[in-house]
Structure formats: C-alpha cells, structure tokens
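DATA SHEET
Item: assembly model
Revision: 1
Owner: S.N.
Input lines:
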Amino acid sequence: MARGGENRGRLLLIILIITSLFLITLDLRGVSVIGGIRTGTQSALSPVQSFGSTVLSPVRNFFSDVIHLGRTRSEMEALREENGRLLTELRQRRNVDAQLEQLQGALDLAGKAEYKVVSARVISQGATTSFTQSITIDVGARDGVKENMTVINAYGLIGVVKTVYPSSALVSLASDPSFRIGVRVAASQQIGILSGQGTRKGVLQLLDNQSTIKVGDILVARGSVNNRPFVPGVPVGEVTAVDNAAGAVTQTADVRFFANFSAIGIVTVVLKGAEVDPRDALIPKKPEPTPVPTVTVFVTPSGSPSPSADGTE
Amino acid sequence: MSTRKLSLSALLFIVIYVIQEAFVTQLHIAGGGFSLFLIFALLWAALSAPDVGALTGFAAGLLIDLSQSTSGAVGQWTFVLILVGFGISYLGLGYENVRMNPFTITFLVTSAVVVARVLYLLLSLLLGENVGNFQSIFTSLLIGALWSAAIVPMTMPLVARAYDFIDDSRSRL
C-alpha cells in the first residue's frame, strides 16, 4: 500500500516536471497562448495594482527612509514642531509635490526635445523572484504605448518598454544586467556601448581604440533606427571612473546613471521622437555655486572715548 | 486531496498572490526586498507531504511565471518550485523535530528561498539569459535571505493556522 503511494508520488512529480518543461518549450518557441495567459493575468491585476499604488503611496518609501534615518533627522526634528493636522497635510502635500516635480521635470525634458510623450505612474517594481530590474507603469496599448519605446524622467533615460499590456506596460530599467544602449560622449562625439550592472552604475565600452574619455564626460543616447528603442539625445549618465588597463583593446569606464532607479514615481514614455536630433541640448546644466555676499563694514573711530555701558570710565 | 481542501488552498494562494503583486511590490524595500508569495508557498510546502509539496510548487511557480515582474520564460519558476517544493517537504517528512521547531523551519524555508533563486539563476544561464555580475547577484541573494529570515517567523503562525484549518488537522508548529 505504502509502495503504491510512493509510486503515485513519483509519477506525479515526473508529470509536473514534464509539464513545466513543456511550458518552457512552448514559451521559448513563442506560442501565443502562453503570452496571452500572461497578458490576461496582467490585465486582471492592473486595476488592483493601481489601487495598491494609491493606497500605499504615502508609505511607499518607508523602508528606504529607515535606512537613511540619520540623513533626515534634522528634517524630522523640524517636523515634530508641527501640530498633527499640519503634519498630515504636509505628508500628503509632499507626496503630491514630489510626483508633480517628477512629472514637471520629465515634461520639461520632453518639451525641450519636442518629443510626443505620455506620462505614467509606476505601479509596481520588480520583485525578488526575478534578477531583472524592471518597473510596471499604468499606461499601455490603449494609450499608444508600444514595445521598444524609450522611457525617461526628469533626469534622463529610465529604460525601454519591454512588454505592453492593454492598460499597463513592463519597462526594463537601464540598470538591468541585460540592458545595452549605444551612447555618444557629449562634446567629443565618441561612441560606445553602455551596459547595465544591476545597480545605478553602468559600464561603458568605447568602440574606437583611438578614443579616450575622462571623468566627468556626459553620455547621451545615440538613438536607434526610427527612434526605437532609443530616441537620440536623451541624457544617460556621467563618467565616474576610467579604466586605463594596459593591453585593453578599447577603453572602458564606470558610468553613474542620471536617474535614481530606486525612487521612480512618475515616468514619461516617448511615443514619437523629435524630427531633428536634439544633439546635446538636453544635457542637464551643472549646478552653479551660489555666491556668498561679502559684507564690509567701515568703522570710523570717534575723536573722544565714549562712556562705558554701566556709566563708569 | 478533497475538493474543499483544493478550492480553499487555491483561493488562499490567489489572495496572497494578489497581495504580493498589488501591495508588496509597491514598497521600495532595500535590496529588492522579499517575495511574500514565495515564502508563503515554501512554508505551505514544508507543512505538506512530498507529493502535495510538489503540487504546491507547481501552482505557485505557475502563478509567479504569470507575474508581470517575471521576465523569464513561462515554466521556469514552475520547474524550480516543483523541485524545491518537493525537496522542502521531503526534508521534513519523518523528522518531527524539523517540523516542530520554529527555528529549524525558519532555516529550512530561508534556505529554500535561496536555493530556489539560485536554481532559477542557473536555469536562466542555461536558457542563455543575461543574469548580471556576481556582486549584484550575491548581494541580491544575501539581502533576500535576510529578509526571508525576518519574514518567515512572522508569517509562520498564520500559515500554520490556515494550513490546519484547511487540512482539518491539529497544529504541528
């Protein structure tokens, strides 16, 4: 009897494994049914995710804020002085302001380049079940979003639309290890390939062995044929370290992306690129130090000594 | 397995899946955070017999494969979780001290989360996907393990109660 149960268990295990391998094969061969099921699941979950995004909006950054508690201590002390009503209003206001600021920045960038865009809210971030870096946004095929469209925010490149669902889309972030983008060094016009590394840091490999780069060089997207997946001119990042290894065929460098991928709230999908390549027009201006005013006081000594404060001399 | 047990288990799995997809993924958690659904599925498998553990892994893996945050081929997580679900329930079978000790089950489930992710990674490599550099993978695995070790003790009593209610048996934890 026990032997029969054991055999049944083994048979079930084998059947399940074969089924899973069958599913992998079907998906890799591009059978539309499998993709359809995934699209259906995403369509069903999209409204719930939007609801979740709205509900968790005020506390979304709680866990990351805990890590940077020391940095925000002075801000917290100032906030303690506020009364309860003002504190609640302030929290709500800050959340809306941050989203507005991100939206305004993204629209400014898109407007400067004359892109046709659609703005979107991030409704989900990739979970630990995947090693890929991705986000889900609340616009999809109904809003004109298609696969391989560039996604930007106020600071520059965010990633590229990987999968489109009716009312949402999966965006592969530029930090994803599989992400590759052709970039151009602003000013010097050298070209190279930038690869994501799973963090905010990317690795640039120049294509020409005669080219050299230096720390502080700004990288912009080189653009693709018909502006997909990348529209040209989008700021990507800044060179932070140059690898001058002897014997290397071409020079490589570490690049820090302009966009902070861990704090993305609002993004913009470029539906249509500019008619003319904006070249280096979108590169963010370096912050200029605020001049500190110097006050010079001229004191002319009086002829006779003045009496002291307590009246004694 | 009775129809009642199957339908209630399926309902619970779907609810946890929706919570994971709609709420947990919204939180900007350090290091990528944790997968509540994965932890729940492995806890459930740990409480089950090996054949039910494999079946649990199959269902949970299929749901994870259908998630929009999963970029791999459909079936990849299914394959991994069948093996891990079977393995974790097989490890507990016959060793009552393993199942009755919360520390052991925390260690078992946390290890299973890491093993599942490593297997997924290896399968991705076999399928020719780019998985990134060693440092980011190691960091992700380590942080994921720490989060799992923190989350398992909190969810374990609830999962055990739900399991006992559906299984109609006394709590074994």
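QC remark: Chain A has five helices and twelve strands.
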